[in-house]
Here is the input.
Amino acid sequence: MNRRPLLSFTICWIAGSAAGCMFSGRSLLFYLAGLLLLPAIWAVSGGIRWRTAAVFGLAIAAAVLYWEWSEARNVSLLPEQLGRSATELNEANVTAAGVIASPVERDGDRVDFTLKLSRIGLERQGSQETETAANVETGAKVATKEKVAVVVAAGAAADAAADAEKGGSAAAEGAETDAEAEAEAEAEAEAETGVGADATGAEEEAKGELVAVQIKLQEESEIAVAALWQRGDRVVIEGELAQPQIARNFGGFDYQAYLLAKKTHWLLKGAGTASVTAKPPASWQLSGILRWNDRMRATLGAEMERLFEEPHAGYMKGLVIGIQEDLDPETFKQFSQLGLTHILAISGMHVAVYVGVILFLLRRCRFTRETALTVTLLLVPAYVLLSGAGPSVVRAGIMSMIALLAARLGILKDGMNILAAAALMMLVWNPYLLLSVSFQLSFLVTAGLMVYTPLAAPLFRRLPSWMAGALSVTFIAQLVSFPLTIYYFNQFSLLSFAANLLLVPFITFLVLPLGTLALLIGRFWNTAALLTVQLAELLNNATFAAVEWVNGFTAGVLIWASPSLLWICLYYGLLYGLLYALKRRTEITLVPQYMEDETRPLAELELPGNSRGKAGNTSSNKAVPAAAANSRRAALALQAFPHSDVTRWSSLAAVLCAASLALLLYRGYNAEDLNRTGAISYLDVGQGDSILITTPGGAHILVDGGGTVSFGKKEAWRIRRSPFEVGAKTLLPLLKQRGIHRLDAVILTHGDQDHAGGLQAVLEGMPVSALLFNGSLADTEPYTKLMTTALAAGVRLYPVQQGMVLTPDEAAQLHFLWPEPPADGQTLLNEVEDQNHESVVFRLEMNGRSFLFTGDMDQAAEEAILQSAQQAGIQSGKPTDILKVAHHGSKTATSADWLSFWNPAAAVISAGVNNLYGHPNGDVLARLEDANTEVYRTDQQGEIQLRVGKEAIIMRHKLNMKDTE
Here is the structure.
């Protein structure tokens, strides 16, 4: 570290940026003080000079200040400029003008791109009744409609200058009562300023705010229109402004934070291409390079589609060009499970192959070494752009350019310093790259290979050099990427090492060159290109088959909870200690033989006790080779520390590090510790139900899985490659993120899609022991597929009925209250159309507390349960602590008698935000209020969690972290 000041400086910068990211206010000051103390301690210990410590301290402080400055600038100015609060702007109709600042991407019936605003007009229409002086005597009232548009500047300064040249503001005072005149005024405003709104108000200084645009195509013919839009086009868009969705579950994906890291604060949603007016830039600008690059990538992608059949086309586009949008979702899922997705993201491997091939060709063409290095240096940025310029390829590109320049100038180069320089340049350019998963993995794995591979190399010394190199690199890459893999993706395959070892070289040195060759010769030698394509597709089929076969061993996939930062740091420290101790021990065992071979004439280097090391035996004064000099130093070290002592201490250190690492992994894998308390999570899955129950004994029971409800069958062109589905995108990731390795039981209350749909992804992605359902079948394709999947996976199916009891452990019992037993002992499963009436209803007794779960039961089922209780002589049930309100708060259930019988202290309503059904119903809320029942709602508070102890129930909800008891 002391010999690499640039590396130390970069580490200090990253530490300061991380502190600024994670903390604020007083906490940030405390952590900053602690970080500044570290260089001072280093200087006091004599490790570095005070001047160097001061530089490192300045790096930490500067990084913190730079992050805080970036955060202060990363705010939306639209509320202030438009004179409306963010809440008022949400779902407001606007007309925005600006420049397309990203590639235009289409997925099914949706087109996405980023807009850099130059102006935005907020429109509102209202009725205003005015009295004129002429009408005062008669009392007549004249109703006038006025349309107000406030136009503000929010774009780049160059865009504002261009707008000023074209006519500046489009202010239209007053309102036209004649519809035709109003339309003419709007047309004139569009022609003069590019903003499709009649506007009042003054323009302000341009700010260049970014907005994520989503255009929902209305007709298939609009695909061709949207295909003409390109980066750099000046556009006018009429649509609805919306705030990105925040995380509504603990540990869930936060779309708002994701866009914030991209300096984007608003969504702009338009309907059809008619809502967009686009025209190319009037003159060439520097951004035209990116526009040309997008066209080039699109052309290369189209050529890939021409040459390859699906799914090979999407796979090869990701492998060769870095275009992953068309990759088959199932293929991506298979690769992801084995940790092979880095192959599909252009990274250091691709850049290394690219640079190596160019240098080889240039030297074969008799270019001088200096010329070859210079030409390659100039071509690297072109490849970075053509491959999409993701964080990993930018890192690899910068490192390659620095290394090529160092080689060209003949100066000493160091891999860690080059890596540090690349990281520092990227973080100064955009500090939010620190939050990028791709950035973190790319730099961490590269640094890990540099640090850990030399330590692991002696472990493979008995193997051939080519095999030892491949094994050590793959082994270290897997170990280094492991913590981030489980932190972000919450699973790790034990077969990932073997898959990477075999498939990465196969794909890198066979499939990748073949795909690139086919792309290069496709236009001028089609026959050869098609033959190359056939060979590549044959190899692809072998790859897909191997990946699918390996993924068939589901026991090798382990689910991990997201670890803490402390856990990750301890992991890397213990891993380094273990490898260092093993390396030290290995070197010591090799030293005696090495001494025997290389330094036999040198009496002073003989080991103690060696018969050749007698007094009077002198050495020659001849020059000693470098290897002998190293042996001499090693021997002197061994004289100071006897061989047996060093071996003993190295072995002991290795054992301690290995034991500590094993304990750390065990604790990380079994992270959940409820301390004999139970937990209930009412997950926010939109308009649906999903509840996770964890008993004090550690059993996990999932009640329903939510589901995405679709109305009618979509046309083929509207279907997206990876559409949003609650089970795959929300529920399953949440279960994995919380470290749930297996579900002991899944209770499907009934077969409606908003309860059953999400369970398909759960059964496919996680082991499930048993599936409890209402004993009936639903005549729908998803329900049939769900049951078929359960049978294929070996899940035990249990139809439940009134009177049954499930005891997952001694502190929890489930008493099933509905559905009623079939008549006359009937055992056949019948199809039932009205699944709500047959919903599974049960009461959970856990740690002496009572919870009632009702599915979508109707009032008829409520009355039947109450009648059964009366027949049994029960006039009032045991008071319930928490009631899950039936059917999302629909008026078809939760009667006054039902509430009187159970007397719930609190109730939870699971409903979607602004759902189309008006849930929860106002009458139901009134009845709950009359019953003195406190109400919690997922549409208002997100996920609702209960910690169930014997003494109290502690509740918290995601959208308000205030704990209540």
Remarks:
- The first helix runs from residue 5 to 22.
- Residues 125-206, 593-631, 634-641, 961-965 have pLDDT under 50 and may be disordered.
- The radius of gyration is 34 Å.
